[in-house]
Amino acid sequence: MAISQTRIAYLLEQYATNNCTRKELLELFEWLEQENDDMAIQNAFQAVWQSGTAADIVPVINKDKVYAHIMQDFPAQKISIWRREWIRMVAAAVLLFAVTGTLYLTIYRTKEKPVLAALPTKGDIAPGHNGAVLTLSNGQKIVLDTAGNGELVKDGNVAIIKNGGDIIYQGKADKIVYNTISTDKGRQWQLTLPDGTNVWLNSASSIRYPLSFNDKERRVEITGEAYFEVVHNSKLPFRVQINTPSGDGGLIEDIGTAFNVNAYSDEHAVKTTLLEGSVKVSTGISSSLTLKPGQQAVSNSNQIANTRILNNIDTEEVTAWKEGLFIFNKSNVETIMRQISRWYNVEIVYEGAVPVKQIHGTASRNTNLSSIIKVLSLSGIHVKMEENKIIVKP
Questions:
Q1: Element (DSSP H or E) covering residue 49
Q2: Which of helix, strand or coil describes residue 149?
Q3: pLDDT tens digits for range 310-364
Q4: Mean local confidence (pLDDT), 187-192
């Protein structure tokens, strides 16, 4: 990646002042990845510091401190041992909330998926993990957390196979029967539907689907939040029925698509966000809206006919949960606490008025709750943990 010294100087200034965007931080990491070892990085830094073009950009930065911080994040080992997909994860994890000062959580670099270091706090709560309950057509329930890999059971003529954190169906049902996969708080799951469509379920969510689709449509029903990568078939449309406690939350029809649906009962609206392709979102008995990539359909769960379209949505923020991240873009306290409640399976209690504050930043979902609590506190949100409760004070 060719990059000028002026650009590097700018990135270092952004890093030193905690003003890096996610893209800027990833750009800085990718530049560092090109260097072979600690000495090469140090020489590259010296070249930037001594550059005349950079002198006007970084005159007031404590260069030694910036270098020390970066080398703390990048120990003297070859950075290229990381798989590239985890570089983005680490970049996001470093940018943990827009809090003035030093980095509050340490990242350990390994060949495995990087996670934030858990702070050893008494009574700490571990993050959620892959897990769900599969309900067969006869009502039998299988806890997928503890089930081994391989064929779990046959439902009619269809073999249900667990492959790591995925469920796969093999065979064809001779009649329409349904399975349901549901996740509690602190769980998430992935499955491959009989037509090959991939589905990711967030915590406190469910999907109900037939083991064999009919010859008119492929219809599934969801609650909570799910991400779909649909195998498109124009002759057999894929439709998602959104179920909410108040009734019909709408219908989504795929037109060659990757999309996310957020329809939690404790959220103020049902949100359908399109990443690829196109979808139709029903807005009433006979009307619908068609979304383009980067758009989001937002509707009050009680007034589906009032659906509106928002443009230029940050799709990384919307699907962060699927990538193992929390991403907050000027999010309010209640929104953040609802996400934390679902993933850590804790109750949120507000003492007095809810703090009026917006948080911008990113954190790993693979860290213990105490780490998140500490950073929230440093961000000016006064919280404490008592057993399975988070108490938020004004």
A1: helix 38-49
A2: coil
A3: 999 999 999 999 988 888 888 889 999 999 999 999 999 999 888 888 887 778 8
A4: 93
Q: What is the pLDDT of residues 259-301, one digit of tens each?
A: 999 999 898 889 999 999 999 888 665 578 899 999 999 987 5
Residue 244's closest CA among 218, 227, 225?
225
Task: Sort strands 166-170 and 247-254 into parallel, antiparallel or unpaired.
Answer: unpaired
Please give the distance of CA 270 from its chain centroid, rounded to a whole number: 17
Residue 48: name the closest of 22, 27, 67 by CA. Answer: 67
SS3 114: coil
Residues 138 and 156: beta-carbon distance below 8 Å? no
Please indicate whether residue 68 or residue 204 has the higher confidence score (pLDDT): 204
Give residue 32's identity as a one-letter amino acid code. L
Match domain 322-393 to its CATH number in 1.20.120.1730, 3.40.50.620, 3.55.50.30, 2.40.50.140: 3.55.50.30
Residues 83-92, mean pLDDT to the nearest whole number: 43
Helix, strand, or coil (residue 336): helix
pLDDT (0 to 100) of residue 283: 67
Q: Domain 129-317 belongs to what architecture?
A: Sandwich (2.60)
**SS3 call for 370:** helix
SS3 88: helix
For residues 266 and 223, give the distance between their C-alpha atoms in angstroms, rounded to a whole number: 12
CB contact at 8 A, 320 and 362: yes
Q: Are 308 and 297 in contact (CB under 8 A)?
A: yes
Domain segments of the chain as ranges = 5-81, 129-317, 322-393
The torsion region of residue 319 among left (phi > 0), alpha (psi -120 to 50) and beta comes to alpha
| 341: alpha, beta or left? (left if phi > 0; alpha if psi -120 to 50) | alpha
Q: Are 66 and 58 in contact (CB under 8 A)?
A: no
